[in-house]
Amino acid sequence: MLFSDENVAAYINENFEPAWQSVRPVPTVTIDFGNGKIVKRTLHGNVATYVCNDDGTVLDVLPGIYQPRTYLDRLGQLQLLYRYVQQETALIADPAGALHEYHASAAAALSKNEPYKIAEVEFDRPSIVRIEKSVKIVLNPADRIQARLQAAKGIRTEPTSIAAPKSSAELPHWRALATDTEINETQRRLLIHQHLLETGKTTPDELKKWLYKEVLHADLDDPYLGLGSILFDAYPFAEEDQG
Questions:
Q1: Which residues have a Cβ under 8 Å from the Cβ of 100 and sit 6 or more positions away?
Q2: DSSP 91-116
Q3: Which of 23, 27, 193, 219 registers the highest number of CB atoms within 10 A of its CB?
């Protein structure tokens, strides 16, 4: 529903260098009903979108599956984050400091249940001969733009619109997706900001086990994907099977 959407795929291909990695085989479950009827299905996994710098450093992570419109909006924000890191690195040669400021301010906003945005703003810059227009990426502009750039004008473009469910049969899936999106953007992203503040520079390979275990609750080292207690603890025929 998300990555197969042509608008999402086009946006990623036009604005990023996409790469896909499977972190474990796709799990399947088989149910034998004993009357010749067998059902075999793949289990839904989970996914994480890492946005990285040119050297592979993780800038931020979008955890789980999102509603398409929100997902595109967040990808747009992370594009601005990439440009912010480049901007600040050119000024002070400290990409780690720029990222630290971003994660600290984002975590502070999320912990208070406040919205957080990165904005591209235009402001007047005096030169020797005239007033010139300049563009700068600003963190948390809801208060900082008004305080520091009184004449700033946001020029960010909204992402492509995504269609609503086509039928009533799709509504339960979209409601579940809306719930996942809200959890992703509050609880899960707060954990990610806090963790990246502590770890500093990291790569997807270094981050993935922590991310899947602590944020997505899908421990990559657990062969039963957290279902062990359900499968075995209350199984009434364990002794018979052993005999």
A1: 197, 200
A2: HHS-HHHHHHHHHHHHHHHHHTT---
A3: 193
Mean pLDDT of the residues in the chain: 80
Q: Number of structural domains, the chain? A: 1
Reported as a single tens digit per residue, the pLDDT across 39-61 is 887 666 689 999 999 999 999 99
Judged by DSSP in three states, 167 sits in: coil
Q: Containing domain of residue 18, as a range?
A: 6-159+169-242
Which long-range contacts does 198-202 make (Cβ < 8 Å, 24+ apart)? Answer: 200/96, 200/99, 200/100, 201/57, 201/96, 201/99, 202/57, 202/58
- Indicate whether 1 belongs to any domain: no
Residue 233 lies in a domain: yes
46 located within any domain: yes
CB 181 within 8 A of CB 67: yes
Q: What is the value of pTM for the model shown?
A: 0.77
**pLDDT digit string (tens) for 1-17?**
677 788 999 999 999 99
β-strand partners of 29? 41
Angle between helix 95-111 and helix 189-199 axes, rounded to 10 deg = 140
